[in-house]
């Protein structure tokens, strides 16, 4: 059986931003977006920003990080 991988696009990152910043956890994000939880952890690290001592995720920051 062939594995199917999903590459995140900017629209996925915007969804992650809205859901994560509203309090959804990593497992729920992975299920909603349709990717492995490790993908979510890497993506959250890529787009991490700190705002007033709170860790948030920015789709724009993550998109710029990948080039």
In short:
Helices cover 55% and strands 12% of the residues. The protein contains 4 helices and 2 strands. It has helices spanning 10-21, 26-33, 37-46, 59-65, and strands at 48-51, 54-57.
Architecture overview:
- This protein is mainly alpha-helical.
- It has one domain: Arc Repressor Mutant, subunit A (Orthogonal Bundle).
- The protein is built from four helices and two strands, in the order H-H-H-E-E-H.
- Strands 1-2 form a two-stranded antiparallel ribbon.
- The longest helix is centred in the N-terminal third of the chain and has 12 residues, at 10-21.
- It starts with 9 loop residues before the first helix and ends with a helix.
Protein topology:
Elements: H1 10-21, H2 26-33, H3 37-46, E1 48-51, E2 54-57, H4 59-65
Antiparallel strand pairs: 1-2
SSE pattern: HHHEEH
* Radius of gyration, whole Å: 12 Å
Strand content: 5-15%
Structural class: mainly alpha
Reported for the largest beta sheet, the result is: 2 strands, antiparallel
Key phrases:
12% strand; 67 residues; single chain; 2 strands; mainly alpha; 4 helices; two-stranded antiparallel sheet; Arc Repressor Mutant, subunit A
């Amino acid at each position: 059986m062939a594995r199917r991988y999903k590459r995140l696009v900017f629209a996925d990152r915007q969804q992650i931003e809205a859901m994560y910043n509203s309090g959804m956890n990593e497992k729920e994000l992975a299920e909603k977006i349709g990717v492995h939880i490790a993908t979510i952890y890497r993506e959250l690290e890529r787009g991490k920003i700190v705002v007033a001592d709170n860790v948030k995720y920015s789709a724009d920051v993550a998109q710029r990080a990948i080039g």
